[in-house]
Amino acid sequence: MSAKHDSVLRTLTVALLVCLVCAVVVATAAVMLRPVQEKNKLLDKQMNILAAAGLYEQGMDVPAAFENIERRFVELESGNYVEMPGSYEQRKAAKDPAQSVRLDGGIDIASIKRQAKVAEVYLARDEQGALSKIILPIHGYGLWSTLYGFIALQPDADTIAGLGF
Fold first, then answer.
1. How many C-beta neighbours within 10 Å does residue 50 have?
2. How many CA atoms lie within 13 A of 87 on its CB side?
């Protein structure tokens, strides 16, 4: 190849075309994989809830096992169950001043700053429909970032049955 075919314009054109092709491939992959990512995110959350409750076994059908888990919402001020949309996310609500309360430093030992007014509660039931575990999402200050997890309580709500982060 001769030097007359090499030019700054030609080099920039090739670089631009490579960038455009890569951008299209990455954008297409991100859009096409979004449903799979959302499904895997839900599956991971369900698996962590089951694991904290001691109900997870390697290779099990997680969605089928999760059918025995009931998702409820508790208004923290009153302690009563409330109806919330299925899309409600406690983490996002805690960041929204309209859906959360600011915690003062004296009671905020976990350094979370804000607490959602409505909390998620997961109730695990046995085959007979009796309450077997109460699973609560938890979070607090970690070494590099906030830690998120689940704590499982026995039906007496005094005994810890499991914990997972």
1. 26
2. 1
